[in-house]
Amino acid sequence: EVPPCINSTAQMNWLNRGDVRKALHIPATLPPWDLCSDDVGEQYTTLYSTVKDVYLKLISLGLRALVYNGDTDMACNFLGDQWFVEDLGLEATTKYQTWIHDDQIAGFYQQFGNITFLTVKGAGHMVPQWAPGPAFHMFQSFITNGYY
Amino acid sequence: QYAPDEVTNLPGMKFKPNYRQWSGYLQARQGKFLHYWFVTSQRDPVKDPLVLWLNGGPGCSSLDGFLSENGPFHVNDNGASLYENAFSWNKIANVLYVESPAGVGFSYSDDKKYATDDDQVADDNYKALQSFFAKFPNFTQNEFFIFGESYGGIYAPTLSLRVATGAAKINFKGFAVGNGLSSFALNDQSLIYFGYYHGLFGEDLWRDLNINCCEKGSCNFYNSSSDACKTLVIVAFGIVYNSGLNEYALYLDCEGGRRSHRGYERTMIHLFKNCGKHMHTLKFSDGAPSSVSLG
After folding, report:
1. What ipTM did this prediction achieve?
2. Which of A43, B167, B222, B274 has the least CB density, counted as fewest CB within 10 Å?
């Protein structure tokens, strides 16, 4: 069983081939691969209703952070994450502005010191899947600490 | 590098990769083994950063990230052959995918007990990371980043805190969260505005939500004490999550239909938890209570 609206049949079929499992060094005794585990999902206990304090500790240690959202997702919508970053109470170091990819507006971003909030226009929950070009651009900018 | 885990050929791969890859197991807590799949950078493995990618769920596999999102190759619809991903993130970085926690994908626990929580997952991920660097000691020099998606909005920062404050020598630079669950309250609260902005709610429902959930200019759609508000929020969320829309991408078709995954439902029900105890008596899939008409 998978999350709604996701078709992972192809991956499942490939990963559950005996020769693929052998090539990936997966013990034959293990059950078939599935996108999500009901066992884990059903018995999972959430402890953090918010990770605000964790973020504040990490930012205070001088780490760099990026919070990005495909802006058509409703499971974790961009507005909630934008409000989360704003609620950290850090001073904005840029205005809320567009970022460009391939001469098109790819979304919006704003920086608050070491943390950047960025949207990827028209992308859903899995940004690298549904907006691979802008996702790669964003990824490169973040890991090189470059401009968006 | 840890030779026994190296993957030198893969069924269905007709192209010759210009990077190396390893697949095997990392040691988490005693008796728990997390499957990892590691691909080096197509550019400069020695100098390029090392990136850990974690999908969320909770309980979903990071191989979805590899094979559907940012990995070097994806699976064709025939489920048998592979094609190269032109936008793979390993074009500029060494990328490590870990299926976490134990029980997810090919990760397992000797005792087959899979109950866990946020902190245990973070501890296990940290141990697994140390196990990775024990297998690939050369990569302790590389700049290191942690990426989490969805429920990875909990995984990534909690693991990052252990990496940033732990004893292991890791050249940790930062973390990123994609469409992450950072705050249940803000995720709920914002979804009402998101849904209204995209025209998913009619004027009646929007007016009733404002009347019953807002006062003095501020609204609480997350944990209102008003039963009327809670009922209306259920209706609104029912439209978002249960009316056939693709909640992962509003403007895309709902691939694969509405099959549901209990873990996902539990997370979504958790999102509803603000609707008070009686919500837990409502089966999510029952949608809106009959007493409320959909405009």
Report:
1. 0.97
2. B167
